[in-house]
Amino acid sequence: MITLTVNGTTHTLDVDPETPLLYALRNDLALNGAKFGCGLGQCGACTVLIDDRPAFSCLVPIASLVGRKIRTIEGLGTAEQPGAVPAAFEAEQAAQCGYCIAGMIMRTQALLERNNRPTEAEVRSQLAPNLCRCGTHMRILRAVRRAAVAMGGGVQESSP
Amino acid sequence: MTGLGRRRFLTDGALVMAFTISGRALAQEAMELPPLAGDLQKYPFLDSWIRIDADGRITVFTGKAELGQGLKTALLQVAADELSVSPAAIDLVTADTGRTPDEGVTAGSHSMQDSGMAILNAAANVRGLLTDTAAWRFACAIDDVELQDGLAYGPNGQTLGYGDLAASLSLHAVAKPDAPRRSKGRRLIGENVGRVDIPAKVSGGASYVQDMRLPGMLHARVVRGPSDGTRLKPADFEQIAKMPGIDRVVRDGRFVAILAAKEWDAVKALRHVQAAGWERPSPDLPAADMRDALQKLPARDVPIFEYPGPPAPAGATKVTARYSRPLLMHGSIGPSCAVARWDNDNLTVWTHSQGVGPLRKALADLLHLSPDKVRCIHVEGSGCYGHNGADDVAADAALAARAVPGRPVKLQWTREQEHGWEPLGSAMVVELRAALGADRRIKAWWHEVWSNAHNGRPVTAGGLLAGAEVEPPFPPQIPKPIPMPEGGGHRNANPLYALSNAAGIYHFVESAPVRVSALRSLGAHMNIFAIESFVDEVAGTAGMDPVDFRLVHLQDERARAVVEMAANRFGWARRRKGGNGRGSGFGFARYKNLGAYCAIALEITVDERTGRIAVRRAVAAVDSGEAISPDGIRNQVEGAIVQSLSWTTMEQVTLDTVHRTSFDWSAYPILRFPGVPESVEVHVIDRPGEPFLGTGEAGQGPTAAALANAVSDAIGLRLRDMPLTPARIKAALRS
Predict the structure, then answer these.
(1) CB nearest to A93's CB, from B198, B210, B665
(2) What is the mean pLDDT of residues B15-36?
(3) What is the CATH number that goes with domain A84-150?
(4) Which of B272, B478, B503, B581 has its CA 20 to 30 A from that of B42?
(5) What's the whole-number mean pLDDT along residues B440-445?
(6) Per the record, a Pfam family (chain A) (predicted)?
(7) Do B202 and A131 touch (CB under 8 A)?
(8) Which CATH number applies to A2-76?
């Protein structure tokens, strides 16, 4: 039995301790947000927050997560009452297929909680681990700028 | 018909209400009328598209699928606008062989042209019938009836609900080709309505086939070698079936799937099987770079176009160039996935296939079932950008589900399987020749293109990976060139410029040593890259500005308008002179010469030390006909620009003699955030009343050419082979 704390709730799961967190979230806890993209830590579709830092949930075995705080997009609000970051993504219509978007939102959440006044270059570099194939990047960047303002800060222009 | 007006329409509507006429008779009658809009021509009955319950709830049906491009929202806008209701009053049912018209494959930027126009005109017909029925019930003139938010209003304040009206008329009526669109009231068309699918996607709602969890569902992985043309060495499947948590191993010939109650157990078992190693039973691959093989393989020559004209004058300047593109990958972020359930010899498959109708036929073939025993229901997947593993994984899931009747099976491909087995976008070579007159006009034009097929979509079991693995195996589908005007490898090989003494030929290379099929925009990406690069080269020979040179050869007013708008908004005339690593480039095309018009200008810098390109600005203008959602159009074009920059500057599938070596994102890198443009602007030219034109593939070709033209402007050297990588740029600068 493994005890996991996800979005503030503690769950006891009968799962192989080597199971990557992603499978426990999706199958045992029925959370859709974190996505399977590669299982290799290359694309960021599975990004969640572990102790407030972005992590590839496809790689982290659940045995290593006892006593740690896991957050997924489901913890940021609902479709009706979204948190600041998901609300900014919706306002900017920052999705095409949307498969990467939960991961993008979680990485943005981690970035802006740590620093709500990042530079544009910092935003681009922080989001680099996450892939989008539809080419929604420009909208995602707009959503990050909007979310930074909503969280009391703002993205600063980088010096050229 | 216009002269007959609405009274005649009422009579016809009443006729349909009063008598039962066989569908065949009505369909025959429809055949004699002018063509109906879009796919309404194929499915002329209104109730194929729109139904209204007695309680007034409206359901709209489309055979097209949401591929993450906002189709659902756009179709809801069209229907809601014409029926004077809010989009929330409509349930939209998308591609489902059990419920919707078979509109073939959702591809080629066809959805708004085929399904959007059908739904628009069906809704105009339904609006007419509701109005006529209300007028009859109110005993008033048709013009005195107003429809709004599900109610018909009469001249004296009487009201009747749509449900009440619909109950007294039949929508099983053949559409009229000239049903007038509504002319009054608030319009939803042209509004930026928020996409209906986004709230769930930003909150962890169930949005994709990957998110389906059915009671009793098993998880499955399919067993394959590392890439197409390979297979795993035999493993001890008896032992695999006994591994902890494994429900069973399903085998049919060489097809193998591992089923488990817990997904991670299936993953572990697959890794165990893969440890046995692999082999290549197929012949070795002919070349690491397919471009080198393409012009040596036997080809069928297909004429593309021939515009007669006087021969080029003796003094004309001749310009020639050869361009090429490598194999490209679709690279969906979510590997392909499907859920299947087998009940009493009936198969249901939930799939992100682009074509539920063709997939149903192929699955029926594979499983020796009658097609009416197979139902394919579209559920969104990760963006596909053409024919990826969606159909193959549906077949894999179906074969697995057949072994466990009554239990749903979700089969998820691995990342390495998607990279290794998805059909690739063909490598291509284009050679262009032109003659330039002393008057700086093009006097002759010759286009040759070499390519494998761009359509390997399954219509039989032989088009599915599993079809070659089951016992007995099915013969592979033989690829055929897609005819013009849409074309496959020759898509957009006929420039929209006013040319005479011009011709093109498509060398269709049937033998494909690697698996290839439709990648977004098919040959258009390459043909437009080549044509629009070459136009710049010829303009350079003529000593003319590239945009001016395009305009003197463009007569189509809508084409001229997008070129002028992109140039103006970019500030083309005032642009900084190219050189010293800074340059500007332009590209234009009308997709397929039938779809959206798109012009793109780019400003870039090239670091001559590292060869790295940075895109400073992208400015696009697009004309998609009547713009339903300007923001949806902008989203598509922004995406096309970024995706095409990735294709054009970074991407190339690599091979050795035995397999693909682009097995994951480390071996097949795509553009990440630090490499995207600093800014992208898209300007939409709205054409109210003009037919909807698909937008999803309009920007890829123009972007590729604009990039190459900007590089040439920046470093004074022409790069004609994609991808325009730092290594190629540095090599060009050294030579």
Answers:
(1) B198
(2) 51
(3) 1.10.150.120
(4) B478
(5) 98
(6) Fer2
(7) no
(8) 3.10.20.30
Q: Do B674 and A19 touch (CB under 8 A)?
A: no
In chain A, ranges of CATH 3.10.20.30 domains: 2-76
Q: Do residue B334 and residue A37 have CB atoms under 8 angstroms apart?
A: yes
Instruction: Tokens for B346, please give them.
Output: 């009936």
Q: What is the pLDDT of residues A35-46, one digit of tens each?
A: 999 999 999 999
Task: Among B77, B202, B668, pick the best mutation site for testing chain A contact (most A Cβ within 10 A).
Answer: B202
pLDDT, tens digit, 9 for 90 and up, residues B384-415: 999 999 999 999 999 999 999 999 999 999 99
Residue B5's pLDDT band (cuts 50, 70, 90): very low
Beta bridge partners of B579: B582
Task: Note whether B673 contacts A128, CB cutoff 8 Å.
Answer: yes
Binary contact (B673, A127; C-beta < 8 A): yes
CA distance A61 to chain B (A): 11
Pairing of strands B218-222, B409-412: parallel
Residue B586 region, left (φ>0) first, then alpha (ψ -120 to 50), else beta?
beta
With CB atoms and an 8 Å threshold, state whether B264 touches A100: no
Pick the CATH number of B428-454+489-734 from 3.30.1360.120, 3.30.365.10, 3.30.1370.10, 3.40.630.30: 3.30.365.10
**Numbered ranges of CATH 1.10.150.120 in chain A:** 84-150
Which candidate, B637, B622, B638, B635, places its Cα nearest to that of B692? B622
Q: Residue A23 pLDDT > 90, yes or no?
A: yes
DSSP reduced 3-state for B633: helix
> Which neighbouring-strand residues pair with B682?
B620
User: CA angle, B602 as apex, B596 and B608 as ends, to 5°?
Assistant: 145
* Closest chain B residue to A82, measured at CA: B203
Asked if residue B7 has pLDDT above 50, the reply is no
Count of positions (residues) in chain B: 735
- pLDDT band, very low/low/confident/very high, at B22 (cuts 50, 70, 90): very low
Tens-digit pLDDT profile for residues B290-300: 898 899 999 99
Is B333 in contact with A89 (Cβ distance < 8 A)?
Answer: no
* Dist. CA B78–CA B95, nearest whole Å: 17
Q: A131 to chain B: nearest residue by CA?
A: B672
Region B209-280+330-420: CATH code? 3.30.365.10
Burial code (b: 16+ CB inside 10 Å, e: under 16) for B627-648 equals bbbbbbbbbbbbbbbbbbbbbb
User: In CATH terms, are B209-280+330-420 and B428-454+489-734 the same topology?
Assistant: yes
Respond yes or no on whether the N-terminal peptide bond of residue A17 is cis (omega within 30° of 0): no
CA distance B678 to B638: 12
Beta carbons of B66 and A95 less than 8 angstroms apart: no
Indicate the pTM of the whole model: 0.95
Does pLDDT of B75 surpass 50?
yes
**What's the pLDDT tens digit per position in A59-68?**
999 999 999 9
CATH number among 3.30.365.10, 3.30.70.120, 3.40.50.300, 3.40.190.10, domain B2-199: 3.30.365.10
ipTM: 0.98
Mean of pLDDT values over B21-39: 63
How far is residue B197's CA from residue B520's CA, in Å, rounded to a whole number? 22
Chain mean pLDDT for chain B: 94
In terms of Cα–Cα distance, which of B704, B575, B668, B635 is closest to B332? B668
Domain boundaries along the sequence of chain B: 2-199, 209-280+330-420, 428-454+489-734
Exposed e or buried b for every residue in B558-575, given b needs 16+ CB within 10 A?
A: bbbbbbbbbbebbebeeb
From chain A, the residues in CB contact with B674 under 8 A are 124-125, 128
Average pLDDT for B346-372:
98
pLDDT of residue B19: 35
Find chain A residues with C-beta within 8 A of B633's C-beta.
none
